[in-house]
Amino acid sequence: MPTMPERIPADGDPTASIEKIDAEMVAVSFVDNAGITRVKSVPIGRLARAARFGIGVSPCFETFAFDDLMTVGGYLGGPDGDLRLIPDLGALTEIACQPGWAWAPAEKYTQDGTRFAACQRGFAARQVEAARAAGLRLSMAFETEWALGVADETGFVPALDGPAYGMVRLGRVGEYARTLVATVERQGMSVEQFHPEYALAQVELSIAPNDPVAAADDAVLLRHTIRQVSADFGWRATLAPSIDPDGAGSGAHLHFSLHSGDGPLLAGGPGPYGMHPTGAAFLAGVLRELPALVAVGAGNPASFLRLRPSRWAGIWHCWGREAREAALRFVTGVRGTEDWAANAEVKCFDATGNPYLIVGSVIAAGLAGVAEELTLPAEVTGDPATFGPESEVTRLPADSAEAAGRLADSTVLAAAMGPELHDALLTVRRAEAERYRGATPRELVELTRWRF
Ligand SMILES: NC(=O)CC[C@H](N)C(=O)O
């Protein structure tokens, strides 16, 4: 996938890709460090100009918290200055569920035309490039879980009931699922699976893997599509990590596979379950950074309502083959697919994590493992919650302040992000942790329910 240039291009003809689009308005989005997708829009006739000169956006968003309250960091935040949102026209897509609209993800540039150091999508693209320079290619996909309900004065009325994974549940959402899948596919994503899930009013959809930056783009557009199609059916969709603190929540697990020029590195090799040494070192790097990765991908105070034992949310700092309680699950292919289907799944993430920061951070963590030739420790299977006091398996951070502390300590993520982005993300996470330190589970549910 072509990446955005270091400087805003002063020549070239952006109208070519625009002409193929049948829309009147274009939503140009970015995801902030709190994981909120924010947007500016332009009439289609202004899009070529926006691609050339950008759309103005305040740098204050770099340190916005998920509740829209502003903070100021060591480098960024505050009321002054301006950035330019440059839509990536290579990703311009008609929004099939919002007639007359198209969408493009943006990267942020400064007013003098250079790439903004703390741009989240630019960070992801930089890590893809670092992997390429090391001879590695990644393929990634987010799983998407959400709950369907109706908002009323009690907060949330579930739109469906019935047993987990039950045919009864599917019957309630059959027409909805058919419409959603068709809409998602019309927008260029390939749906792999839809099913009723385990938690309250929850369903899940998975899409085919993609280049890491495109996988993050897919997550943004898919979540918007889910909300729009749900509204067409008279429901609201919430991707918040928890709507019922007494039960399982919604995750945004990240699957990835790793390849060199010679083929897959997680299959067909001499290591555990066919991993090649480079594949195992990459996983060991991801495993090492998991405590800090929680702050990136599940660091909202409400994330910790979901990150509880024995709910398949991946709270344990370990890896294991098909281990659904481990934060890093290794998935081998079934017979006949072993050569290509093996992948790893980071389970602890949820939809409050910025998908661009997640893919970029996982790559950075893995590349550090490869550079240091790390080896994987022994795998852990079963549920560590039942292992008893002699177990050495530790829990990942259990609240947002602890997760932020681990991110502060991560020299790997600090180096990959650069000081501006690392500090801005920490500023947001610390502000949220501080502000909601004494919040009850019910308050956290209500604060996040319709924001993600
Ligand atoms: N099937 C599953 O893996 C369920 C995942 C679970 N809902 C989570 O919180 O991540």
From TrEMBL:
Gene3D superfamilies: Glutamine synthetase, N-terminal domain, Glutamine synthetase/guanido kinase, catalytic domain
Pfam family, one: Gln-synt_C
Keyword Ligase annotated: yes
GO molecular function ontology, one term from the record: ligase activity
Enzyme Commission (EC) number: 6.3.1.-
TM ranges: none
Key words of the record: Ligase
Tagged with keyword Lipoprotein: no
Domain GS catalytic, residue spans: 120-452
Family to which this protein belongs: Belongs to the glutamine synthetase family.
Record's protein name: Glutamine synthetase family protein
